[in-house]
């Protein structure tokens, strides 16, 4: 990975922008009910997706503005062909010193040696349950064994694994303790995420009425494992991290719907079709694909990016309020980028 080549860019609220989540596809090989409707979503035509060359150019420009970390997301990244060579090119860009990815693990295991070679040190593995029947019900696919193959392959290879588990009332509450038990003997982070409304429709709950918010998740786990010790978090971290007595790994809780971490958010998102989101909850603030394909120079793209960063919502609640009325139904997380 390359050394940092530029100073940090700050948004209009004094937050550094160092981290981009790059969706390489909107396609996924699972059909998790909280991510998209049962009938699925209408995938974008291939020509509407950013090409690898366009993404590489854009990340290079962002690196000059201070972005140093790139996380590849989807959909499912490994659904897109030739992902590994693209990752290698990103890792070689001046200024990018942290390349990681989020995956559901179904297709990932054969590529673990490539991830090691490229220098990927961290992988977020989406895994909401360790029970095969519940996994099939939640994802609408019977793929848990392949996901677990990926999990153990990553650990064997020495890649840091962070399990991301969405906490859903009436769906996987019985899995919170078994998932946490993984941290007892394994050097793994298990992170529990508040359920969000990004399933292609509206969401009846508010942060105040969400059945399993971050406080209740912690209380539930502490009732079984004893009091957690909160760890000092890294700047910009979304998860509150905890140590469980006698456990090798760690537990994290992400208040994704309560939005308690917005004040230190250092990340931006790029959707697969080239939409810039400076907040997960905004409607998209810049059509970068249009700039790339209309002949804009590097300087013009940098100017547009800088302007967007200087008009960033203070938090997710403000970003949500700024959405047009006709966009108050939320997109699929597969479309946004996980």
From TrEMBL:
Enzyme Commission number: 4.1.99.22
Q: Which InterPro entries does this UniProt record tie to the protein?
A: Aldolase_TIM (IPR013785), Elp3/MiaA/NifB-like_rSAM (IPR006638), MoaA (IPR013483), MoaA-like (IPR040064), MoaA_NifB_PqqE_Fe-S-bd_CS (IPR000385), MoaA_twitch (IPR010505), MoCo_biosynth_MoaA/MoaC (IPR050105), rSAM (IPR007197)
Q: Which GO terms describe its molecular function?
A: GTP 3',8'-cyclase activity
Asked whether the keyword Transmembrane helix is assigned, the reply is: no
- Ranges for domain Radical SAM core come to 12-227
Which PROSITE patterns does its entry note? MOAA_NIFB_PQQE, RADICAL_SAM
* Pfam families reported for this sequence: Mob_synth_C (PF06463), Radical_SAM (PF04055)
Keywords of the record, alphabetical order, are: 4Fe-4S, GTP-binding, Iron, Iron-sulfur, Lyase, Metal-binding, Molybdenum cofactor biosynthesis, Nucleotide-binding, S-adenosyl-L-methionine
Question: Which reaction(s) does the protein catalyse, per the Swiss-Prot or TrEMBL entry?
Answer: GTP + AH2 + S-adenosyl-L-methionine = (8S)-3',8-cyclo-7,8-dihydroguanosine 5'-triphosphate + 5'-deoxyadenosine + L-methionine + A + H(+)
Q: Which SMART domains match?
A: Elp3
What cofactor does this protein call for? [4Fe-4S] cluster
Tagged with keyword rRNA-binding = no
NCBIfam families documented for this protein = moaA
The name under which this protein is listed is GTP 3',8-cyclase
* Lineage summary: Bacteria, Pseudomonadati, Bacteroidota, Cytophagia, Cytophagales
Gene encoding this chain?
moaA
